[in-house]
Amino acid sequence: MKTIIRNVVMMSMAGTALLYSSCKKDIIDRTLQYRALAPSNEDVNADTWQTVLVTDPTVFTVAAPDATNSPAYVADLNEIKGYQRNLSSDQKAIIKYWSAGSVLRWNEIMRDLVAKHNVPPYQLPDGSYPAPSSANPFNYPQFPFANPPYAARAYAYLSAAQYDALVTAYHFKKQYNRSAPYVNDANVQALIPKSSLPSYPSEDAVVAGASVEIMKMMFPTEVAYIEQKAAEEMQYRIMAGANVRGELDAGESLGKQVADVFTARARTDKAGAAIGNQAYWTALQVTTTNKGEQYWISQESPKRPPMLPLFNKVKPFLFDTTTVKTLRPGPPYSTTSAEFKQAVAEVLNYSNNATREHEAQVAFWADGVATYTPAGHWNAIAADEFVKQNYSEVRWARNFALLNMAEMDAAIVCWDTKYAYFNPRPSQVNDQVKTLTGLPNFPSYSSGHSNFSAAAATVLDYLLPDRGSKFDDLANAAAMSRLYGGIHTRQDCEVGLITGKAVGQYAVNRGKADGADSGN
Question: Which of 172, 244, 310, 509 has the fewest Cβ atoms surrounding its Cβ within 10 A?
Answer without folding.
Answer: 509
